[in-house]
Amino acid sequence: MRLSWFNITSLTLGFAFLYLPMIILVIYSFNESRLVTVWTGFSTKWYGELLSNQAFLDAAWVTLKVAVFSSTLATVLGTLAAYALVRGARFPGRTLFSGMIYAPLVMPEVITGLSLLLLFIGIGLDRGVLTIVLAHTTFAMCYVSVVVSSRLVSFDQSLEEAALDLGCSPWDAFRLVTLPIIAPAVISGWLLAFTLSLDDLVIASFTTGPSATTLPIKIFSAVRLGVSPEINALSTLMIAVVTLGVIIASLISKRNFVREQQGVAGRH
Amino acid sequence: MPECAFAPWTDPGAEPLIRFRNVTKRFGDFTAVRDLTLDIYEHEFFALLGPSGCGKTTMMRMLAGFETPSSGHIELAGQNIVPVPPNKRAVNMMFQSYALFPHLNVWDNIAFGLKRDGMPKDALRERVAEMLKLTHLERFARRKPHQISGGQRQRVALARSLAKAPKLLLLDEPMGALDKKLRQETQFELMDIQEKTGTTFVIVTHDQEEAMTVASRVAVMDEGELIQVATPSAIYEAPNCVYVADFIGDVNIIEGAAHRAGEDRYTVHWADGQAPLMAASDKAFSPAQNAFLAIRPEKVLVTAERPADAVNAIQGRIHDIAYLGNISTYHVEVAGGRMLKAQTANTRRIENRGFTWENRVWLSWDSTAGVLLER
Amino acid sequence: MRRVFIIAVPYLWLLALFLIPFAIVLKISLSDVAMARPPYLPQFSWEAGWGAFLSQLDFENFTFLTTDDLYWKAYLSSLQIAATSTLLTLLIGYPIAYAMARAPDEWRATLMMLVILPFWTSFLIRVYSWMGILSQEGYLNQLLLGLGVISEPLIILNTKVAVYIGIVYTYIPFMILPIYAALHRLDSSLIEAAEDLGCSRAKAFWLITVPLSRNGIIAGCFLVFIPTLGEFVIPSLLGGSGTLMIGKVLWEEFFNNRDWPVASAVAVVLVLILIIPIVLFQQNQQKQNEAQS
Ligand SMILES: Nc1ncnc2c1ncn2[C@@H]1O[C@H](COP(=O)(O)OP(=O)(O)OP(=O)(O)O)[C@@H](O)[C@H]1O
Ligand SMILES: [Mg+2]
Fold first, then answer.
1. Per the count of CB atoms within 10 A, which of A4, A125, C257, C266 is most buried?
2. A-chain residue closest to B88, CA distance
3. Within chain B, which residue ranges are assigned CATH 2.40.50.140?
4. What would the pLDDT profile of B235-283 be if each residue is shown by its tens digit?
5. Is the ipTM of this complex over 0.90?
6. Closest Cα partner for C259 from C25, C33, C27?
7. Is the distance from CB of C232 to CB of C248 less than 8 angstroms?
8. CATH assignment at residue A155
9. Is the pLDDT score of B3 beyond 50?
10. DSSP assignments along B5-45, one per residue
11. Considering only residues 39 to 98 of chain A, which have any Cβ-Cβ distance to chain C shorter than 8 Å?
């Protein structure tokens, strides 16, 4: 199929719109001047400043900790929830349960954050890393569960039955058959939960205390005052990490695909 | 034929391997299997026949342990197996959808059940190789299920369920996707395997020819109920109702009023102004009871003149001739616009055939050729 | 036993960390603000019992929301901003989705990845990247001044326009993906058939393509509209003090005024407003699923 001029134009403009702001951001992170909008020369000094800024490093560390814990916990809970929804035929309060899975997806973050904060205050839990982890786990598990259950729905249940039939215990059937098959969905669920946690400003602001500042909170309070070169450098680093991650992921899946194809060819 | 001597169901002392006792399975308010009572004996090759949705798969799934009966109980070798989970039953099932593990290659799929049993490595490798050879899959051992054809997948599923040499093997339409030649080969292989291993087979099939070829007994089901359970020849020659007669093979059904005409003999008045038909039956019919005479087309003789000694003879006009190579089927219109079928073997070449369209012919058969049925 | 465990763990988690917190919000929205810790009354105590506790709850805060025009103006302006930017996102997203669906097969995976990639980068950074572009000395003004298109720098940052741009920019993948999915399924021979039957290109587009991608359009609009309604980051970074959005009001009510009961009441009303589009969205999805199966 050939593309018409109209289509080429909309693709070009569309992707320019999506990517130009970030490209500009990356370019200007190498600007020497503190006045971000005026180019004075190439320099990596803002990266140096950023890496020697203890507050940023601390915030990054807190963010990473929160993201790893909450996404792992969310993956376990979300997978269980997906399993219960798709496989657990009928149980009391099923409608409420599925409602509670879907509601956080559309609930404005300000409300989720506010309600969790009120809970933590109500039960007298000290706010800090723990409370952010609890909060992030709660909304991220819903995303995980949606991702995993869409895979489980298309998963032929007779595969599990075949495993049982061939002598697996239910746990073995899950470990040897179900898990490997839904693994890609579980992994994407984890990645999604991880990025959601890394990214979250609003819920973390509500549920954190003075002891724990995450990177988004730090960035937000910095950029409220205007554009700053350190934030540009930080943004560039974060964009680089994501881009690298996506490229590696696609290379891996491509290599697996090629290997599988060769496996077939080699047998002839 | 071993079937001739092998008939444990006629021996009242024989202990059945599987006993269904008044088993009913309901899904919500829909009854998939209704009050099923059935014995299946060791070394049997038991075929389940019936239209789509009649409960065949459900019955199998209860045997394998994936569905619990709503009422009644199931015994395997004298033990109630309803509470036994599927992985603890010495029963293997080949799934209608094959259920091959997509993340494992053919070899690992076949080895899966053996590994669960903790079979030693060497024995396992040997057993898998044996299964691959049996199903002609050696060349595909390293492929994933999505990289082989439908028929090959079916063979993998078969090999996987056979690998554990179970006491009872359940096959849910094991040969649906195979071409005719491969299907016949597999049928003979199955019979061969059965003879060697002594495994009891329960097989679901839509192909009556297959059921006739492989089965020691056939059960015909409809809407969750067993209609008839008998040997293939009994099902064919002596169906117990019109449904079974019609389901298995081709049949002419003539409806009429039955009157007793001597010891086990009845006359059937089927049309005004026509001579009644004579039929033998050991069932009792009350006078003028509505009855159905079922006659297989191949038992009906087509002749130009009325055979002198014919007990039953009807005159008609040839409406259509279907030439099927080895046989021809004549569709003959008789009194009242009724259409009867008659089959003859084509022993002569087609141009030497006696009759053609619109010819007036006689159809005749013996009094014992048909079966008289109540419903 | 195992089954109970699988269901009970996530169930209890959500009860404790989603439903109960929400019930607390509801309860506090019916309480009165007080100079106390926590800053609201009544507090439940076992000695006084339920009767005394419940009798102190009232709808005062909700009445307050209707009398102070800050709140209903904020709701209205949120609805207006969400609706306008949804429309803008549709107008910009549709041609992109359309072109993607028409692109050669070997491009599709890459194009898809290019649309999804921004999802994985920080939302905050994506919003932030516009601050440098739209500010008075920003890149856009520099460019336009340099080209001589304008003689005075445009004031865009801290206006509604900046908020629209920010929303379109961050939410456009939500619009593109469902429309692309719908258009991708569309059999191109349908268009050819329409042209064969005498339609012009444009007419075939209106009569065939648009109706058949309707479900994608509806899904995309809801996916943009619903989260934008409670948006906080975009209005606080790109919209000035003049841009009222309810998410921002709630935040300020809570953190700056420390009026928890009113903040809770604002939240409850926002949820009530959101229920309508969410239910409509659910119905649309259900219809679509039924049509597909
Ligand atoms: N889990 C279930 N819930 C509800 N109804 C079911 C369920 N499983 C089967 N049924 C119904 O029970 C009936 C019997 O189903 P079954 O799968 O046993 O049919 P079958 O004889 O194997 O048909 P086929 O030849 O098409 O495979 C069908 O009407 C089916 O719709
Ligand atoms: Mg079936």
1. C266
2. A167
3. 250-373
4. 988 888 899 988 888 889 988 888 888 888 888 888 887 888 888 887 8
5. no
6. C33
7. yes
8. 1.10.3720.10
9. no
10. H--GGG-TTPPPSEEEEEEEEEETTEEEEEEEEEEE-TT-E
11. 77-78, 80-81, 83-84, 88, 91, 93, 96-97
Give kind and range of the element (H or E) at residue B372: strand B371-373
d(CA A174, CA A176): 6
pTM score, whole prediction: 0.80
- Look at strands B91-94 and B168-172 and give their pairing: parallel
Does A14 reside within a domain?
Answer: no
CA of B52 to the centre of ligand 1 (A): 8
> What is the total count of domains within chain A?
1
Which amino acid, residue C3? R
The answer to whether residue A88 is domain-embedded is yes
What's the pLDDT tens digit per position in C65-116? Answer: 878 888 888 999 999 999 999 999 999 999 999 999 988 888 888 899 899 8
Contacting residues of A for C123, CB less than 8 Å apart:
199, 201
The residue of chain A nearest to residue C267, with distances taken between CA atoms, is: A111
Residue C228 has pLDDT above 90, yes or no: yes
Distance, first Cα to last Cα, chain B: 33
Q: Which domain range does residue A198 map to?
A: 53-267
- Supply B146's token pair: 């999505």
Ligand 1 atom closest to B206 (CA): 25
Tell me the domains of chain C and their CATH numbers: 1-65 (no CATH), 68-292 (1.10.3720.10)
CATH placement of domain B8-243: 3.40.50.300
Structure tokens, C138: 């920003």
Collapse the DSSP code of B302 into the 3-class scheme (helix H, G, I; strand E, B; otherwise coil) and give the result.
strand
For residue B190, give the H/E element and its range. Answer: helix B180-197
Amino acid at A258: V
Inside any domain, residue A125 = yes
Looking at chain B, the domain(s) classified CATH 3.40.50.300 span: 8-243
Q: Do C25 and A199 touch (CB under 8 A)?
A: no
Strands B45-49 and B217-222: parallel
